[in-house]
Specification:
The complex is a heterodimer of chains A (about 325) and B (about 350). In chain A, α4 runs parallel beside α6. Chain A has about 325 residues and is of the alpha/beta class. In chain A, β4 and β5 form a beta hairpin. Chain A is globular and about 70 Å long. In chain A, the strands form 2 sheets. In chain A, strands 6-7-8-3-9-10-12-11 form an 8-stranded mixed sheet, with helices on both faces. In chain A, strands 2-1-4-5 form a 4-stranded antiparallel sheet. Chain B has an 8-stranded mixed sheet, sandwiched between helices. In chain B, strands 2-1-4-5 form a 4-stranded antiparallel sheet, with helices on one face. The chains are: A alpha/beta (about 325), B alpha/beta (about 350). The interface between A and B is large, with 54 and 58 residues.
Chain lengths: ~325, ~350
Amino acid sequence: MISLVTARDLARTYQLRRGVFGRPVAVRAVDGVSLHVGAGETLGIVGESGSGKSTLGRMVLGLEKPDGGAVTFDGAPMPEPLTAAWRRSRARMQMIYQDPLGALDRRLTVRDQVAEPLAIHGLGASSERMEKALAMLGRVGLSRHVASRYPHELSGGQRQRVVLARALMTDPAFLVCDEPVSALDVSIQAQVVNLLVDLQESLGIAMLFISHDLRVVRQVSRRVAVMYLGRIVEEGDADDLFADPRHPYTRALVSAAPAPGGKRERIILTGEPPNPAARPPGCAFHPRCPLAEARCRETAPALTTLGGRRVACHVVAGPAAATREAA
Amino acid sequence: MATVNPPAQPLVAIRDLQVSFAGVPALRGIDLTVAPGEAVGLVGESGSGKSVTWLAALSLLPAKARVTGSVLLAGEELIGAPPARLDDVRGGRVAMIFQDPASALNPVLTVGRQIGEALALHAGLSGGALRAEAKRLMELVGIPDAGRRLDAYPHEFSGGQNQRVMIAMALAGKPDLLVADEPTTALDVTIQAQILDLLRAVRREFGMALVLISHDLGVIAETCERVAVMYAGRIVEEAPVAPLFGEALHPYTRGLVGSLPPLDGPRRRLTSIPGTVPDPRHLPAGCAFAPRCPVASGGCRETDPRLAAVGEAHRVACLHPGAEAAVPVPAAATLPATTGAPAMALTS
């Protein structure tokens, strides 16, 4: 598959100051992440708070400049943020956030709001823009009488549909969705997830789908990458990865996902959630890992390929797999 | 944990509990019992009334709320009970924990002091005995290095640890019932698993009943024995966990279960429930779920069904329990313009 978006060795460090007189501490939010998204493909990013998944999403979209590494879009390097070239590139890639009300302009009607991207990018005449906005609202499942309303008059699910309609107006090739359904109630969540799946099929949009919810990620993604403290620890086909997780963290994560019906064996991790400001040496997961060995405390494992899967774990990958990768 | 079976006297018996805020109904007649030692789950979406039920039962709602009906705790009426009596019940016989532990704790007091406060109030302890008991509770809820951490402040703990501290405080009064309102919603999945595990363990140890309020069907299924599903201020279905998730009879429950994407097996299109929850100021006539219901008939828009027994321990409020939708949900291949458009036309 031709790669639409490629990220190489992305890294981002924030300076965090503890208290007024505290010394600034370097927090590595993202630490050497490489990924690619093919045209029309959806890559899911799973991780808990502090895993760096949102920072990764912003860097892939060029909203934030990486400290290291580079992103290419359609074969060309990502333009510097806030330049004219970068603004032009916005028409082809869009972002969907968790909070639709925060993403919408409260003083604009839904119709004006959805038509706005065309005006910004100077596409089409004014009447055509309104026409296209109304058509797009239908496409995301909103009836025409919503068009003259303001964001505060809509429900959460309707607002997220408006955000989606606006993002789709410029026919983007790539969408980054950061927890797009997390703020919605279960039944509304299902409506929006179904809509996203429909849009993938009918428009062939590529997506980077970021979420903490394994179920939702599996539903919309072909491939999934699991992040832990700024790094990808496992990546593979969505169905395979959730059916047979290899990395001990992925195993714990999958087993911890609550399930109605059959009660599965659960792996309860000991210890506290990871803190990006105090990243453990060696493998960042080792303090909570049930399989950790001496070498896990010293050297960080690299992502190695294991039959269609990439895993960063000394124990699971084993020395044999590591040499194969090196050869 | 031997649950009393059949319960001679329920620990809590709620009868026709109704709550309204400035004339707008929030609870429209709840009947629910909790047996001693039993774990009951309450599921529902935002605004369904699952939290209001327990805030009303414990007289924790603001004065402008109008509460009617009856809540018996071991035979004693709580609605309209004198404040002094309620103070003994709250934190004593019934404890409650919430979604956001950081805002429930006092940021300027050490956690040891806060657990101590609960112990002094409900266990009558003081001095060295109080500190020893506080340390024991911290150890019980799994906080490492408990002796030293008693002198730490809430901001020095992670979200999961603060929820453990809240559970320790709740246990101080040796309650007969713990009401946990979305206790893990703000936590990461792996930490959520730890807290649910802890709740199961303390329930076993104390023989305590648990009411778990959650929007997450999975969390309820793994923790509770019986589930009540709420919609628009009513219980619409109530059953033990296995039949509720396996053979749900109310179309709303079926919709909720179908809304959950599977974690294994083939991917299926989610059976989303069209539309949104009704505005409590303009509830539809008849069944409140009828406008969104795939099996609603003309009668559903006239008759408001009440909860009725349909089997052993299974109750449902529906005129067509277990009915299959006549028109199947459109297949995944359908174009979005046709699947989406009618979905939102129902909202007012």
